[in-house]
Structures are given as C-alpha cells and as structure tokens.
Amino acid sequence: MRPLRLGVNIDHIATLREARKTYEPDPIAAAYEVERAGAHQLVMHLREDRRHISDRDYQLALKTTHLPLDLEMAADPRIIEIALKNPPHTCTLVPERRQELTTEGGLDVVRY
Questions:
Q1: Taking Cα atoms as reference points, which of 102, 19, 90, 12 lies closest to residue 57?
Q2: Is residue 108 pLDDT above 90, yes or no?
Q3: Is the pLDDT of residue 19 over 60?
Q4: Alpha helices in 1-112 (DSSP H)
Q5: How sure is the predictor about 98, in pLDDT bands with cuts at 50, 70 and 90?
Q6: CB-based contact 49:56 (threshold 8 Å)
Q7: Residue 60's domain spans which residues?
Q8: Residue 62: which residues within 8 A CB-CB, separation 6 or more?
Q9: Which residue has the higher pLDDT, 86 or 3?
Q10: Would residue 108 count as lying in a domain?
C-alpha cells in the first residue's frame, strides 16, 4: 500500500447538487476526476441530516473508485451502522451541528 499524501473531500460537489435540487454536479463523477488526477484518497462526510453526501453517493464511491475512502462521520449509531455494513478504508469522527454549513470545529475527545 502506498503512503497517503493527498486526500480530496468531495462534499461540496454534493452541496451544490442539493442546493440546486438536481442530479448535478455529480460527486461520483468528481470522485473519478480526483482519482484520475492522482490523489491518494477520497474523503466524504455522510452527515446525519444528509445535507450533501447521500447514502447512494457513499455506496457508489465504495463500488466505483479504487482510492481508499475516508468516511467523515458523527459518532451517531445510524451512521456507525452504515460504516459497519459497508466499511470504508478509514473513518474520521467529526462533530456535527445542524446550524453549520460545513464542519466548523474539532471533536473534544477529552470531554467526550
């Protein structure tokens, strides 16, 4: 396995799609371009409210890309279940607040 150097997050491709309430831009097409451009890892955040990446996006990325996939996720039982059924290469735990457009802070591991 080669060392990871560049991971590309495709969340905001899906944010644009969801804001437009359409099927494009397609985050899976973006994942293909990320791989073709030479990135070493694909990153996506499957949020509890699914405001950008969808379950379908996650499933397709696992099936169609050859890149290791880092799933950013809250420590939420429903998201954990999805990750256990279809494991990504790595998981990154991130906090989520409904009011934020994108993740704004870190996870306080000492407190929690």
A1: 12
A2: no
A3: yes
A4: 11-20, 27-36, 55-64, 77-85
A5: low
A6: no
A7: 7-93
A8: 69, 86, 88
A9: 86
A10: no
Q: Is residue 42 part of a domain?
A: yes
Distance (Å) of CA 82 to CA 21, 30, 62: 24, 22, 12
User: Residues 8, 39: contact at Cβ < 8 Å?
Assistant: yes
Length of the chain: 112
13-31 b/e (C-beta count within 10 Å ≥ 16 → b): bbbebeeeeeeebbbbebb
pTM, two decimal places: 0.83
- In the sheet that holds 41-45, the strands lie side by side as 7-9, 41-45, 69-73, 90-93
At residue 47, what are phi and psi to the nearest 5 degrees?
-80, 155
Number of domains in the chain: 1
pLDDT reported for residue 97: 65
